[in-house]
Specification:
Layout: E1 3-5, H1 10-20, H2 31-37, E2 47-51, E3 62-67, E4 71-76, E5 88-89, E6 92-99, E7 108-113, H3 121-130, E8 135-145, E9 148-159, E10 164-173, E11 180-184, H4 189-205, E12 207-208
Parallel strand pairs: 1-4
Antiparallel strand pairs: 2-3, 3-12, 4-6, 5-6, 6-7, 7-11, 8-9, 9-10, 10-11
Length: about 210
């Protein structure tokens, strides 16, 4: 299994600030507004594999389906590294990057993991979003996939690099090994929209273990 370290990830993680910032000035809104803002995409991508199990590229407390040609690589964050803060967002640490470039898009699905099992998915996502100063207009909702119930957030990110506001989404799943966050950003709004079916596939197929 190929494993990236934060020390060897400087170009990738510096690009992450442009590709997928996540944030702190969040507004959860009322329930009706949140439900409307976080309406799921109408379609999911064609399945190309599964990530999370042994030999899948990233061993995780969850498994979910990957869109065709998306490539996962494990990430290891050294807490003593000067770059550790680039691999940590609020209560979670990056553990996996799933690259969309082989499928023709610029962006990643990134998987983050927290410690302990006492924090709810909603609390985990709130901490994740609030850790980025560029986020706003966060809307949370409860999601069910199979027998699993978890929380999703849709929000807006302001990109100084691109000079625009663009959408971002993430969902958080509770596991015995700590909460897991799966996040989709994108270089710009068009890239985010094109990659959204891959995110929806992951969300619809996620399961613990």
């Amino acid at each position: 299994m190929t494993r990236r370290t934060v020390g060897g990830l400087l170009p990738v993680l510096l690009a992450a600030a442009a590709l997928t910032s996540c944030s702190s000035d969040a507004d959860s809104g009322d329930g009706a507004k949140a439900e409307k803002s976080a309406a799921p995409a109408a379609r999911t991508a064609a399945k190309g594999g599964t990530v999370g199990g042994a030999g899948s590229g990233c061993e995780l407390p969850v498994t979910f389906d990957l869109a065709k040609d998306w490539k996962p690589k494990a990430v290891s964050v050294d807490p003593e590294s000067e770059l550790a803060e680039l691999g940590t967002q609020g209560p979670v640490t990056m553990v996996c990057e799933i690259d969309a470039k082989p499928a023709g898009n610029l962006g990643f699905l990134r998987v983050w993991q927290g410690k302990g099992g006492s924090t709810s998915p909603r609390e985990t996502l709130e901490g994740f979003v609030k850790a980025d100063e560029n986020a706003s207009k966060a809307a949370y909702r409860q999601v069910t996939a199979g027998k699993l119930t978890f929380t999703e957030v849709s929000y807006t990110l302001h990109s100084e690099l691109m000079g625009e506001d663009r959408p971002a989404r993430a969902f958080a799943v509770p596991t015995p090994k700590g909460p897991v966050v799966v996040h989709l950003g994108g270089l710009d709004s068009d890239e985010h929209r094109e990659m959204l079916p891959a995110y929806e596939l992951a969300k619809a197929s996620v399961r613990v273990g």
